[in-house]
Amino acid sequence: MSDIYLALVHSPVYNKNMEIVATSITNLDLHDIARCATTYGVKRYYVVHPAEAQRQLAKRIMGFWQEGFGAEYNPDRQEAFGRVKIAKDLAQVYAEIEAEHGTAPIKVATDARKYANTVTYAKLREDIDTMETPILLLFGTGWGLLKEDVEKMDQILEPIYGPTDYNHLSVRSAVSIILDRLRGH
Asked: Domain ranges in the chain?
C-alpha cells in the first residue's frame, strides 16, 4: 500500500479574478485538514507557503495545541498536528518525500476542471492499494492551483460533482470528500 501525503498550496494560486496570488494560512484549514488526515491515515500533511510570517503564524497556532495547556486540554488535536509540516515550497515537499522513500512521489493534483490525464477515484484508490510508491495529493487554496502547474502533475484527480452546476467547495470539504473516496470503508 502506498503512503499518502497531502500538500495544501497557498502560492501560487488563483483568486476569483484568475489573478496569481498568495492566500493566507487559515486556522480552520490547519485544524480541520490535520484531523481529516489523521482519520484517514495520511502520512504527512504539508502546509506550503512562501512567506516566513505566514509559516510562523501556522507554527504558533500549532504550537498552542502541541505544548502546555492546549495539549492537555485537547490531546486529540495534539495527535493530529503531529502529522503537519510547514514548508516553504513544493520543491521542499518533493525532496523530503523522496529522501524518505528513495523514490519521487506520484504527484496528483486536484482541480474543479477536467484535464487530459484525469484519473478516477476508483483508479487512484486501486493504485494506492496495490503500489508502494508514495502518492502526494496537491490541493490549491483560493480558486485553485495554476493551470500550468496542474498540467505538470503525473495525474489529476477527477473533480467532485454534486447534482447541481455549483462547483466551489472549501478546500477543507474537498479534502474530506476526496480522502473518504480514496481511503474510506
From this structure: 4-183
Closest by Cα among 85, 81, 119, 78 to 99? 85
Whole-number Å distance between alpha carbons of 140 and 69 = 32
pLDDT truncated to tens, each residue of the chain (185 aa)? 899 999 999 999 999 999 999 999 999 999 999 999 999 999 999 999 999 999 999 999 988 888 877 777 777 778 889 999 999 999 999 999 999 999 999 999 999 888 888 999 999 999 999 999 999 999 999 999 999 999 999 999 999 999 998 888 999 999 999 999 999 99
CATH number of 4-183: 3.40.1280.10
Task: State the SS3 of 3-50.
Answer: CEEEEEECCCEECCCCCEECCCCCHHHHHHHHHHHHHCCCCEEEEECC
Provide the residue type at 183 as one letter.
Answer: R
